[in-house]
Amino acid sequence: MPRCTLVLVKTFHSSGDVIVDRRADYARRLAESGDHMAAAELIEQALELAPGWTAGWDLLGSYWEKAGEVARAISAWRHLEALDDAGVFGAHLKLAAHGAGLAGEGTSIGYVEALFDQYAPRFESALVQKLAYRVPERLDALIGEAMAGKGITAFAEAIDLGCGTGLMGERLRGKVSFLEGVDLSAAMVAETGRKGIYDRLTKAELVAFLTAYPSQADLVTAADVFIYCGALPPVLAAAARVMRPGALLAFSLEAHDGPEPQFLRPSLRYAHAPEPTRQALVDAGLDILCFERAVLRQDRGEPVEGLLIVAQKPAAAPLALNLAGEALVVDVEPEALN
């Protein structure tokens, strides 16, 4: 049976004061009607009664941002950052996305965990039905093409990073003898655990998980996962560590064409530039098999451009001796080891 941990999904919206909550509810209705300025002003009044209400500062920043008052939004997020020690509201990311701070290069664990704990019950309906998300099936098709081209018929062991509710795992299951799923969100792990897709499920941050992984895999996947990780080199190095010679890595990224290796979008997801991404794969010791542009999903009615990538860890070159007893390197095609 898969191993998973149940979680009580965090809720942040109650202030603990009935009067403040009523004002917040009215502010939400104003925001839903499009009057974000009035919603922000009402939340400000509520915060005068409950200045330590963390979620209220998050709402205030959101409403000011949508009202076009970015300076006021930044002020609210600074209050939020001071109150939110665990970082579950992502205040530092919101500040960074608006040029008022630094995002850092790694995953914002508290924010991502809280985001997907909240998102888990409606994840599939929102992502697949409303946002036309098709990354798992497209990555699966590219994996199938790589398998055919390399003469691979099946994988003994695979790791699905950021497994979520199992959308990628469902497509991998028929190709893999042992399938491991790992996700930062315990609520996501609980959701997918009910489906019985994975042989083992683990709640963990992915770089820490890969660094401690005790064996090696023939396939590693990450469908829309590295968009929350920031810098790619540490992630790719950790993935390459657990890959056997000849193993495949398949993942998606949101893309941008600027000079930076990655930058943080207002969506609080990272976009990566193609050429630095290629170099990061080379630096991790991986060969690129597929590197293509694609529309990953819709977001607010607009297509999200991204990259679909399949790479392979080169097969180890066995040593042989010449007549003088010197070591010779004998090249072996990766497919010969599968």
Automatic annotation (TrEMBL):
<feature type="domain" description="Methyltransferase type 11">
    <location>
        <begin position="160"/>
        <end position="251"/>
    </location>
</feature>
<dbReference type="Pfam" id="PF08241">
    <property type="entry name" value="Methyltransf_11"/>
</dbReference>
<dbReference type="InterPro" id="IPR011990">
    <property type="entry name" value="TPR-like_helical_dom_sf"/>
</dbReference>
<dbReference type="InterPro" id="IPR013216">
    <property type="entry name" value="Methyltransf_11"/>
</dbReference>
<protein>
    <recommendedName>
        <fullName>Methyltransferase type 11 domain-containing protein</fullName>
    </recommendedName>
</protein>
<dbReference type="GO" id="GO:0008757">
    <property type="term" value="F:S-adenosylmethionine-dependent methyltransferase activity"/>
</dbReference>
<dbReference type="InterPro" id="IPR029063">
    <property type="entry name" value="SAM-dependent_MTases_sf"/>
</dbReference>
